[in-house]
Amino acid sequence: MKIEKKRYDSFVCGLCWAIILCYVCAFCYINLVVTPQFYCTDMYEDVILSAEMWKGKTIFPSNWVFGNQVYVVATPVLAAFVYGLTGNALLSMGIASSIMAILVLLSFEWMLRTVFSRLRDRLVAVIVLITMIAFFGDAVEFVNGWQLLFTLCTFYACYAITTFLAFGCYLRKEPPRSMVALTALLCFATGIQSLRQTAITILPMIAMELLCIFWRAYKKEKLVTEAFWLTLVFTVANLLGVVAGKSIPVAQQHIYGTVNFASIREYLTRFYENLKLISVLVAIRRFKYSTWKMPILLVGVVFGTVCVWRYRKEKEAALLYLMILSLLAILGIGTITKMEMREIYYFMIYPLAACMITLLVSKSSPKMEAVLLGAVIVAFPVCWHIDVMPSFEQIHDREQDISYQVYEDLRDSGIATMYSSWNRCEKVAIAGNLEINAGFWDREDEPFNPIPYLCKTDTFNATPEKVAYLFYSPEEVDLAIEKAQQAGVTMTLLYEYPEHGMYVYTAPINLMEYYLTFPSNE
User: Fold this and answer.
1) Does position 284 have pLDDT exceeding 80, yes or no?
2) Helix (H, G, I), strand (E, B) or coil at 522
3) What is the rounded average pLDDT for all residues in the chain?
4) How far apart are CA 199 and CA 210, in angstroms?
5) pTM to 2 decimal places
6) Pairing relationship of beta strands 437-441 and 467-471 according to DSSP bridges
7) How do beta strands 467-471 and 417-421 pair?
Protein backbone atom coordinates (compact mmCIF):
# COMPACT_ATOMS: atom_id res chain seq x y z
CA MET A 1 0.00 0.00 0.00
CA LYS A 2 2.83 2.40 0.89
CA ILE A 3 4.54 1.65 -2.42
CA GLU A 4 1.33 2.37 -4.34
CA LYS A 5 0.82 5.64 -2.46
CA LYS A 6 4.41 6.65 -3.14
CA ARG A 7 3.96 5.95 -6.85
CA TYR A 8 0.73 7.92 -6.83
CA ASP A 9 2.43 10.89 -5.15
CA SER A 10 5.32 10.71 -7.62
CA PHE A 11 2.90 10.63 -10.55
CA VAL A 12 0.94 13.64 -9.25
CA CYS A 13 4.14 15.58 -8.55
CA GLY A 14 5.49 14.79 -12.00
CA LEU A 15 2.26 15.93 -13.63
CA CYS A 16 2.28 19.13 -11.57
CA TRP A 17 5.89 19.86 -12.53
CA ALA A 18 4.98 19.37 -16.21
CA ILE A 19 2.05 21.82 -15.93
CA ILE A 20 4.17 24.44 -14.15
CA LEU A 21 6.91 24.02 -16.75
CA CYS A 22 4.37 24.59 -19.55
CA TYR A 23 3.19 27.80 -17.92
CA VAL A 24 6.71 29.09 -17.27
CA CYS A 25 7.77 28.33 -20.85
CA ALA A 26 4.67 30.20 -22.06
CA PHE A 27 5.56 33.21 -19.91
CA CYS A 28 9.14 33.26 -21.18
CA TYR A 29 8.10 32.80 -24.81
CA ILE A 30 5.54 35.60 -24.67
CA ASN A 31 8.03 37.85 -22.88
CA LEU A 32 10.68 37.38 -25.53
CA VAL A 33 8.51 37.63 -28.68
CA VAL A 34 5.74 39.81 -27.30
CA THR A 35 3.66 42.02 -29.63
CA PRO A 36 2.71 45.67 -29.05
CA GLN A 37 -0.80 44.81 -27.87
CA PHE A 38 0.64 43.27 -24.71
CA TYR A 39 2.06 46.62 -23.66
CA CYS A 40 0.38 49.47 -21.81
CA THR A 41 1.92 52.89 -21.21
CA ASP A 42 3.22 51.96 -17.74
CA MET A 43 5.13 49.03 -19.22
CA TYR A 44 6.48 51.13 -22.07
CA GLU A 45 7.75 53.75 -19.64
CA ASP A 46 9.40 51.07 -17.50
CA VAL A 47 11.26 49.80 -20.56
CA ILE A 48 12.48 53.31 -21.35
CA LEU A 49 13.49 53.84 -17.72
CA SER A 50 15.53 50.64 -17.64
CA ALA A 51 17.56 51.84 -20.63
CA GLU A 52 18.07 55.25 -19.00
CA MET A 53 19.26 53.56 -15.81
CA TRP A 54 21.98 51.71 -17.67
CA LYS A 55 23.01 54.71 -19.75
CA GLY A 56 23.29 56.91 -16.65
CA LYS A 57 24.70 54.08 -14.47
CA THR A 58 22.19 54.99 -11.78
CA ILE A 59 18.78 53.75 -10.64
CA PHE A 60 17.65 57.36 -10.30
CA PRO A 61 18.36 58.99 -13.70
CA SER A 62 18.45 62.77 -13.46
CA ASN A 63 16.48 63.09 -16.70
CA TRP A 64 13.54 61.03 -15.46
CA VAL A 65 10.38 62.12 -13.65
CA PHE A 66 9.02 59.36 -11.40
CA GLY A 67 5.42 58.84 -10.34
CA ASN A 68 4.28 57.40 -7.01
CA GLN A 69 7.19 55.01 -6.83
CA VAL A 70 10.86 54.98 -7.64
CA TYR A 71 12.59 51.71 -8.46
CA VAL A 72 15.29 50.04 -6.37
CA VAL A 73 14.65 46.28 -6.70
CA ALA A 74 11.83 46.29 -9.25
CA THR A 75 11.92 44.60 -12.66
CA PRO A 76 13.25 47.68 -14.53
CA VAL A 77 16.39 47.63 -12.35
CA LEU A 78 17.10 44.04 -13.32
CA ALA A 79 16.24 44.92 -16.93
CA ALA A 80 18.81 47.72 -16.80
CA PHE A 81 21.59 45.24 -16.00
CA VAL A 82 20.40 42.91 -18.77
CA TYR A 83 20.30 45.90 -21.14
CA GLY A 84 24.00 46.35 -20.52
CA LEU A 85 24.51 42.89 -22.01
CA THR A 86 21.97 42.90 -24.84
CA GLY A 87 21.68 46.55 -25.91
CA ASN A 88 17.99 45.87 -26.65
CA ALA A 89 15.59 47.41 -24.15
CA LEU A 90 12.56 45.29 -25.12
CA LEU A 91 14.50 42.04 -25.04
CA SER A 92 16.07 43.02 -21.73
CA MET A 93 12.68 43.66 -20.16
CA GLY A 94 11.46 40.31 -21.47
CA ILE A 95 14.42 38.48 -19.94
CA ALA A 96 14.13 40.39 -16.66
CA SER A 97 10.40 39.70 -16.46
CA SER A 98 10.98 35.99 -17.02
CA ILE A 99 13.50 35.92 -14.19
CA MET A 100 11.15 37.82 -11.90
CA ALA A 101 8.32 35.43 -12.77
CA ILE A 102 10.40 32.47 -11.66
CA LEU A 103 11.44 34.32 -8.48
CA VAL A 104 7.78 34.98 -7.68
CA LEU A 105 6.97 31.29 -7.94
CA LEU A 106 10.05 30.24 -5.95
CA SER A 107 9.34 32.70 -3.14
CA PHE A 108 5.69 31.63 -3.08
CA GLU A 109 6.72 27.98 -2.77
CA TRP A 110 9.23 28.87 -0.02
CA MET A 111 6.48 30.59 1.95
CA LEU A 112 4.19 27.60 1.50
CA ARG A 113 6.74 25.26 3.10
CA THR A 114 5.77 26.67 6.48
CA VAL A 115 2.24 25.25 6.25
CA PHE A 116 2.29 22.54 3.55
CA SER A 117 4.88 19.86 4.31
CA ARG A 118 4.11 17.79 1.19
CA LEU A 119 5.72 18.90 -2.05
CA ARG A 120 2.58 17.81 -3.88
CA ASP A 121 0.44 20.32 -2.00
CA ARG A 122 2.86 23.16 -2.71
CA LEU A 123 2.95 22.33 -6.41
CA VAL A 124 -0.86 22.27 -6.51
CA ALA A 125 -0.91 25.72 -4.87
CA VAL A 126 1.48 27.08 -7.50
CA ILE A 127 -0.67 25.65 -10.31
CA VAL A 128 -3.85 27.12 -8.82
CA LEU A 129 -2.13 30.50 -8.45
CA ILE A 130 -0.94 30.60 -12.04
CA THR A 131 -4.19 29.26 -13.47
CA MET A 132 -6.32 31.80 -11.61
CA ILE A 133 -4.14 34.70 -12.68
CA ALA A 134 -4.08 33.59 -16.30
CA PHE A 135 -7.80 32.80 -16.54
CA PHE A 136 -9.37 35.54 -14.44
CA GLY A 137 -6.80 38.17 -15.35
CA ASP A 138 -7.28 37.61 -19.12
CA ALA A 139 -3.70 38.00 -20.29
CA VAL A 140 -4.55 39.01 -23.85
CA GLU A 141 -6.43 42.22 -23.09
CA PHE A 142 -5.67 43.32 -19.54
CA VAL A 143 -2.71 44.01 -17.25
CA ASN A 144 -4.29 42.51 -14.14
CA GLY A 145 -3.57 38.93 -15.14
CA TRP A 146 -0.20 37.57 -16.21
CA GLN A 147 1.13 41.08 -16.61
CA LEU A 148 0.58 41.60 -12.89
CA LEU A 149 2.95 38.93 -11.61
CA PHE A 150 4.32 37.23 -14.70
CA THR A 151 4.27 38.45 -18.31
CA LEU A 152 6.15 41.75 -18.42
CA CYS A 153 5.80 41.90 -14.63
CA THR A 154 7.01 45.46 -14.17
CA PHE A 155 4.35 46.26 -11.57
CA TYR A 156 4.22 44.14 -8.45
CA ALA A 157 6.69 41.28 -8.83
CA CYS A 158 9.18 42.71 -6.31
CA TYR A 159 6.40 43.48 -3.82
CA ALA A 160 5.02 39.94 -4.13
CA ILE A 161 8.47 38.40 -3.67
CA THR A 162 9.16 40.51 -0.57
CA THR A 163 5.74 39.71 0.89
CA PHE A 164 6.12 35.97 0.36
CA LEU A 165 9.58 35.98 1.96
CA ALA A 166 8.45 38.13 4.90
CA PHE A 167 5.41 35.96 5.60
CA GLY A 168 7.56 32.85 5.21
CA CYS A 169 10.04 34.14 7.79
CA TYR A 170 7.27 35.21 10.14
CA LEU A 171 5.63 31.79 10.13
CA ARG A 172 8.87 29.88 10.77
CA LYS A 173 9.96 29.25 14.34
CA GLU A 174 13.63 29.59 13.38
CA PRO A 175 13.93 31.20 9.93
CA PRO A 176 17.35 31.11 8.28
CA ARG A 177 19.28 34.23 9.24
CA SER A 178 20.33 34.70 5.64
CA MET A 179 16.67 34.86 4.57
CA VAL A 180 15.86 37.26 7.39
CA ALA A 181 18.69 39.54 6.28
CA LEU A 182 17.64 39.33 2.63
CA THR A 183 14.01 40.06 3.49
CA ALA A 184 14.96 43.01 5.71
CA LEU A 185 17.05 44.39 2.84
CA LEU A 186 14.12 43.98 0.45
CA CYS A 187 11.78 45.69 2.94
CA PHE A 188 14.21 48.59 3.10
CA ALA A 189 14.54 48.78 -0.68
CA THR A 190 10.81 48.58 -1.34
CA GLY A 191 10.29 51.18 1.38
CA ILE A 192 12.40 53.55 -0.71
CA GLN A 193 10.29 52.67 -3.73
CA SER A 194 6.89 53.49 -2.23
CA LEU A 195 4.47 52.85 0.62
CA ARG A 196 2.97 49.88 -1.22
CA GLN A 197 5.08 47.33 0.63
CA THR A 198 4.05 48.92 3.92
CA ALA A 199 0.39 48.39 3.11
CA ILE A 200 0.75 44.91 1.59
CA THR A 201 3.25 43.39 4.03
CA ILE A 202 4.12 45.48 7.07
CA LEU A 203 0.66 46.55 8.22
CA PRO A 204 -0.70 42.97 8.07
CA MET A 205 2.28 41.64 10.07
CA ILE A 206 1.85 44.37 12.71
CA ALA A 207 -1.89 43.67 12.97
CA MET A 208 -1.25 39.93 13.15
CA GLU A 209 1.35 40.29 15.88
CA LEU A 210 -0.86 42.61 17.95
CA LEU A 211 -3.68 40.07 17.77
CA CYS A 212 -1.28 37.31 18.79
CA ILE A 213 0.02 39.36 21.72
CA PHE A 214 -3.52 39.94 22.98
CA TRP A 215 -4.23 36.23 22.61
CA ARG A 216 -1.03 35.23 24.43
CA ALA A 217 -1.83 37.69 27.20
CA TYR A 218 -5.27 36.12 27.55
CA LYS A 219 -3.70 32.65 27.69
CA LYS A 220 -1.02 33.97 30.10
CA GLU A 221 1.77 32.88 27.81
CA LYS A 222 5.05 34.54 26.89
CA LEU A 223 4.20 37.78 25.08
CA VAL A 224 7.36 38.33 23.05
CA THR A 225 8.27 35.63 20.55
CA GLU A 226 10.56 35.28 17.54
CA ALA A 227 7.71 36.48 15.34
CA PHE A 228 7.55 39.74 17.30
CA TRP A 229 11.22 40.50 16.69
CA LEU A 230 10.92 39.61 13.02
CA THR A 231 7.95 41.95 12.67
CA LEU A 232 9.95 44.69 14.39
CA VAL A 233 13.00 44.15 12.16
CA PHE A 234 11.00 44.20 8.94
CA THR A 235 8.94 47.20 10.08
CA VAL A 236 12.00 49.24 11.04
CA ALA A 237 13.75 48.30 7.80
CA ASN A 238 10.73 49.33 5.76
CA LEU A 239 10.24 52.62 7.62
CA LEU A 240 13.93 53.43 7.26
CA GLY A 241 13.50 52.85 3.55
CA VAL A 242 10.52 55.22 3.47
CA VAL A 243 12.58 57.90 5.27
CA ALA A 244 15.56 57.32 2.98
CA GLY A 245 13.29 57.60 -0.05
CA LYS A 246 12.14 61.02 1.09
CA SER A 247 15.73 62.27 1.20
CA ILE A 248 16.72 61.12 -2.28
CA PRO A 249 16.81 64.13 -4.65
CA VAL A 250 14.82 62.82 -7.58
CA ALA A 251 12.15 64.44 -9.75
CA GLN A 252 8.96 62.79 -8.58
CA GLN A 253 5.28 63.64 -8.73
CA HIS A 254 3.09 61.91 -6.17
CA ILE A 255 -0.55 61.29 -6.90
CA TYR A 256 -1.44 59.72 -3.57
CA GLY A 257 -4.76 60.63 -2.03
CA THR A 258 -5.26 62.16 1.40
CA VAL A 259 -7.31 61.09 4.38
CA ASN A 260 -10.91 61.57 3.42
CA PHE A 261 -13.02 63.02 6.23
CA ALA A 262 -16.41 62.42 4.70
CA SER A 263 -19.90 61.27 5.47
CA ILE A 264 -20.77 57.69 6.35
CA ARG A 265 -22.56 57.43 3.03
CA GLU A 266 -19.42 58.39 1.08
CA TYR A 267 -17.35 55.89 3.06
CA LEU A 268 -19.86 53.17 2.23
CA THR A 269 -19.79 54.19 -1.44
CA ARG A 270 -16.00 53.98 -1.59
CA PHE A 271 -16.11 50.66 0.27
CA TYR A 272 -18.49 49.25 -2.31
CA GLU A 273 -16.45 50.62 -5.21
CA ASN A 274 -13.36 48.89 -3.82
CA LEU A 275 -15.26 45.64 -3.49
CA LYS A 276 -16.08 45.91 -7.18
CA LEU A 277 -12.37 46.32 -7.92
CA ILE A 278 -11.65 43.10 -6.03
CA SER A 279 -14.47 41.32 -7.85
CA VAL A 280 -12.80 42.12 -11.18
CA LEU A 281 -9.85 39.92 -10.21
CA VAL A 282 -11.94 36.85 -9.38
CA ALA A 283 -14.61 36.99 -12.09
CA ILE A 284 -14.38 36.39 -15.82
CA ARG A 285 -13.01 39.55 -17.39
CA ARG A 286 -15.37 39.29 -20.32
CA PHE A 287 -18.31 40.34 -18.14
CA LYS A 288 -18.96 43.93 -19.11
CA TYR A 289 -20.05 45.41 -15.79
CA SER A 290 -18.16 44.73 -12.59
CA THR A 291 -21.38 44.99 -10.58
CA TRP A 292 -22.48 41.68 -12.08
CA LYS A 293 -19.29 40.14 -10.74
CA MET A 294 -20.12 40.90 -7.13
CA PRO A 295 -22.02 37.61 -6.57
CA ILE A 296 -18.85 35.72 -7.53
CA LEU A 297 -16.87 37.70 -4.97
CA LEU A 298 -19.54 37.08 -2.33
CA VAL A 299 -19.42 33.34 -3.03
CA GLY A 300 -15.65 33.51 -2.61
CA VAL A 301 -16.02 35.38 0.69
CA VAL A 302 -18.44 32.75 2.00
CA PHE A 303 -16.08 29.97 0.90
CA GLY A 304 -13.15 31.74 2.51
CA THR A 305 -15.02 32.32 5.76
CA VAL A 306 -16.01 28.67 6.00
CA CYS A 307 -12.47 27.59 5.14
CA VAL A 308 -10.86 29.85 7.75
CA TRP A 309 -13.35 28.83 10.43
CA ARG A 310 -13.05 25.14 9.68
CA TYR A 311 -9.25 25.14 9.80
CA ARG A 312 -8.79 27.92 12.36
CA LYS A 313 -6.80 25.63 14.67
CA GLU A 314 -4.55 24.30 11.91
CA LYS A 315 -1.08 25.66 11.23
CA GLU A 316 -2.27 26.92 7.82
CA ALA A 317 -4.63 29.40 9.46
CA ALA A 318 -1.89 31.90 10.29
CA LEU A 319 -0.92 32.23 6.61
CA LEU A 320 -4.54 32.79 5.63
CA TYR A 321 -4.89 35.45 8.32
CA LEU A 322 -1.84 37.34 7.02
CA MET A 323 -3.16 37.38 3.47
CA ILE A 324 -6.63 38.42 4.58
CA LEU A 325 -5.15 41.25 6.65
CA SER A 326 -3.13 42.30 3.59
CA LEU A 327 -6.32 42.63 1.55
CA LEU A 328 -8.11 44.41 4.39
CA ALA A 329 -5.26 46.92 4.66
CA ILE A 330 -5.65 47.91 1.01
CA LEU A 331 -9.44 47.93 1.36
CA GLY A 332 -9.18 50.25 4.37
CA ILE A 333 -6.86 52.62 2.52
CA GLY A 334 -9.21 52.66 -0.44
CA THR A 335 -12.17 53.39 1.80
CA ILE A 336 -10.87 56.17 4.04
CA THR A 337 -8.59 58.01 1.62
CA LYS A 338 -9.06 59.77 -1.69
CA MET A 339 -6.35 57.66 -3.29
CA GLU A 340 -7.27 56.40 -6.76
CA MET A 341 -7.53 52.64 -6.41
CA ARG A 342 -6.99 50.05 -9.14
CA GLU A 343 -7.74 46.37 -9.42
CA ILE A 344 -4.12 45.24 -9.30
CA TYR A 345 -3.67 46.71 -5.80
CA TYR A 346 -5.64 43.68 -4.55
CA PHE A 347 -3.40 41.08 -6.17
CA MET A 348 -3.05 39.18 -2.86
CA ILE A 349 -6.50 37.75 -3.59
CA TYR A 350 -4.80 35.26 -5.91
CA PRO A 351 -2.31 33.66 -3.47
CA LEU A 352 -5.03 33.71 -0.77
CA ALA A 353 -7.45 31.81 -3.01
CA ALA A 354 -4.68 29.42 -4.10
CA CYS A 355 -3.83 28.60 -0.47
CA MET A 356 -7.48 28.10 0.49
CA ILE A 357 -8.15 25.76 -2.42
CA THR A 358 -4.95 23.82 -1.70
CA LEU A 359 -5.90 23.59 1.97
CA LEU A 360 -9.27 22.17 0.98
CA VAL A 361 -7.59 19.60 -1.27
CA SER A 362 -4.98 18.54 1.28
CA LYS A 363 -7.48 18.13 4.12
CA SER A 364 -10.00 16.09 2.13
CA SER A 365 -10.50 12.35 2.25
CA PRO A 366 -8.39 10.33 -0.20
CA LYS A 367 -11.26 9.93 -2.68
CA MET A 368 -12.32 13.57 -2.50
CA GLU A 369 -8.68 14.65 -2.72
CA ALA A 370 -8.31 12.69 -5.95
CA VAL A 371 -11.44 14.35 -7.37
CA LEU A 372 -10.25 17.84 -6.41
CA LEU A 373 -6.76 17.16 -7.77
CA GLY A 374 -8.36 16.06 -11.01
CA ALA A 375 -10.35 19.29 -11.16
CA VAL A 376 -7.18 21.36 -10.66
CA ILE A 377 -5.36 19.46 -13.39
CA VAL A 378 -8.31 19.61 -15.80
CA ALA A 379 -8.49 23.38 -15.27
CA PHE A 380 -5.05 23.65 -16.83
CA PRO A 381 -5.95 22.67 -20.45
CA VAL A 382 -9.16 24.72 -20.22
CA CYS A 383 -7.25 27.81 -19.14
CA TRP A 384 -4.54 27.11 -21.72
CA HIS A 385 -7.13 26.99 -24.50
CA ILE A 386 -8.97 30.14 -23.37
CA ASP A 387 -6.05 32.42 -22.52
CA VAL A 388 -2.67 31.00 -23.51
CA MET A 389 -3.49 29.97 -27.07
CA PRO A 390 -5.04 33.38 -27.98
CA SER A 391 -1.84 34.95 -26.66
CA PHE A 392 0.24 32.81 -29.01
CA GLU A 393 -2.08 33.56 -31.91
CA GLN A 394 -1.82 37.28 -31.23
CA ILE A 395 1.96 37.10 -31.25
CA HIS A 396 2.05 35.43 -34.65
CA ASP A 397 -0.72 37.54 -36.16
CA ARG A 398 1.59 40.48 -36.88
CA GLU A 399 -0.13 41.46 -40.13
CA GLN A 400 -3.36 42.20 -38.25
CA ASP A 401 -1.65 44.63 -35.85
CA ILE A 402 -2.01 48.16 -37.25
CA SER A 403 0.77 49.39 -34.96
CA TYR A 404 3.41 48.05 -37.36
CA GLN A 405 1.88 49.86 -40.35
CA VAL A 406 1.62 53.14 -38.41
CA TYR A 407 5.23 52.85 -37.34
CA GLU A 408 6.45 52.27 -40.90
CA ASP A 409 4.45 55.25 -42.19
CA LEU A 410 5.76 57.56 -39.46
CA ARG A 411 9.31 56.38 -40.00
CA ASP A 412 9.07 57.04 -43.75
CA SER A 413 7.80 60.57 -42.95
CA GLY A 414 10.76 61.30 -40.70
CA ILE A 415 8.71 61.36 -37.50
CA ALA A 416 10.85 60.82 -34.39
CA THR A 417 8.29 61.53 -31.64
CA MET A 418 4.58 60.87 -31.35
CA TYR A 419 2.00 61.82 -28.78
CA SER A 420 -1.40 60.38 -27.92
CA SER A 421 -3.75 59.80 -25.04
CA TRP A 422 -2.70 57.34 -22.33
CA ASN A 423 -2.34 53.67 -23.31
CA ARG A 424 -2.35 54.35 -27.04
CA CYS A 425 0.74 55.24 -29.05
CA GLU A 426 3.15 53.20 -26.91
CA LYS A 427 2.13 50.25 -29.08
CA VAL A 428 3.47 52.02 -32.16
CA ALA A 429 6.73 52.72 -30.34
CA ILE A 430 7.00 49.04 -29.38
CA ALA A 431 6.30 48.02 -33.01
CA GLY A 432 9.28 50.11 -34.06
CA ASN A 433 11.54 48.66 -31.36
CA LEU A 434 11.59 52.08 -29.64
CA GLU A 435 13.02 53.92 -32.65
CA ILE A 436 10.20 56.46 -32.24
CA ASN A 437 9.66 58.13 -28.87
CA ALA A 438 6.22 58.36 -27.29
CA GLY A 439 4.59 60.84 -24.93
CA PHE A 440 1.08 61.05 -23.57
CA TRP A 441 -1.79 63.20 -22.46
CA ASP A 442 -4.09 61.86 -19.79
CA ARG A 443 -7.60 61.75 -21.27
CA GLU A 444 -9.05 61.61 -24.75
CA ASP A 445 -11.29 64.59 -24.02
CA GLU A 446 -8.31 66.75 -22.95
CA PRO A 447 -5.70 66.50 -25.73
CA PHE A 448 -2.27 68.10 -25.36
CA ASN A 449 -2.41 68.17 -21.53
CA PRO A 450 0.90 66.36 -20.92
CA ILE A 451 1.29 63.85 -18.11
CA PRO A 452 4.54 65.21 -16.64
CA TYR A 453 5.70 62.03 -14.89
CA LEU A 454 6.78 58.51 -15.84
CA CYS A 455 8.78 60.01 -18.68
CA LYS A 456 12.06 61.66 -19.61
CA THR A 457 12.25 65.39 -18.98
CA ASP A 458 12.75 66.09 -22.69
CA THR A 459 9.81 63.93 -23.83
CA PHE A 460 7.64 66.93 -24.67
CA ASN A 461 10.36 69.16 -26.14
CA ALA A 462 10.80 67.44 -29.50
CA THR A 463 11.33 69.38 -32.72
CA PRO A 464 7.87 70.26 -34.14
CA GLU A 465 8.80 69.10 -37.66
CA LYS A 466 9.49 65.59 -36.33
CA VAL A 467 6.39 65.32 -34.15
CA ALA A 468 3.09 63.57 -34.89
CA TYR A 469 -0.12 63.33 -32.89
CA LEU A 470 -2.18 60.13 -32.87
CA PHE A 471 -5.92 60.30 -32.27
CA TYR A 472 -8.26 57.37 -31.87
CA SER A 473 -11.65 58.76 -32.79
CA PRO A 474 -13.14 61.57 -34.91
CA GLU A 475 -14.42 63.15 -31.69
CA GLU A 476 -10.91 63.29 -30.27
CA VAL A 477 -9.69 64.88 -33.51
CA ASP A 478 -12.35 67.60 -33.29
CA LEU A 479 -11.35 68.43 -29.71
CA ALA A 480 -7.67 68.56 -30.72
CA ILE A 481 -8.32 70.85 -33.69
CA GLU A 482 -10.27 73.22 -31.47
CA LYS A 483 -7.56 73.25 -28.81
CA ALA A 484 -4.82 73.76 -31.41
CA GLN A 485 -6.73 76.78 -32.71
CA GLN A 486 -6.70 78.19 -29.18
CA ALA A 487 -2.91 78.04 -29.39
CA GLY A 488 -3.07 79.87 -32.74
CA VAL A 489 -2.10 76.96 -34.98
CA THR A 490 -3.79 74.67 -37.50
CA MET A 491 -3.08 70.95 -37.55
CA THR A 492 -2.53 69.00 -40.77
CA LEU A 493 -3.71 65.47 -41.45
CA LEU A 494 -0.72 63.21 -42.20
CA TYR A 495 -2.26 59.72 -42.23
CA GLU A 496 -5.61 58.20 -41.46
CA TYR A 497 -6.69 54.64 -40.78
CA PRO A 498 -10.47 54.97 -40.44
CA GLU A 499 -11.06 51.22 -40.35
CA HIS A 500 -9.01 51.21 -37.13
CA GLY A 501 -10.25 54.56 -35.87
CA MET A 502 -6.76 56.10 -36.01
CA TYR A 503 -5.74 59.53 -37.34
CA VAL A 504 -2.27 61.08 -37.47
CA TYR A 505 -1.78 64.85 -37.52
CA THR A 506 1.11 67.29 -37.44
CA ALA A 507 1.33 70.93 -36.30
CA PRO A 508 3.76 73.85 -36.83
CA ILE A 509 4.57 73.95 -33.10
CA ASN A 510 4.96 71.29 -30.44
CA LEU A 511 1.55 71.52 -28.79
CA MET A 512 2.63 69.28 -25.91
CA GLU A 513 5.48 71.64 -25.09
CA TYR A 514 3.08 74.57 -25.38
CA TYR A 515 0.86 73.15 -22.63
CA LEU A 516 3.70 71.63 -20.56
CA THR A 517 4.16 72.12 -16.82
CA PHE A 518 6.79 69.92 -15.19
CA PRO A 519 7.02 69.29 -11.44
CA SER A 520 9.89 70.83 -9.52
CA ASN A 521 13.10 68.82 -9.07
CA GLU A 522 13.45 70.12 -5.53
Assistant:
1) no
2) coil
3) 88
4) 16
5) 0.92
6) unpaired
7) parallel
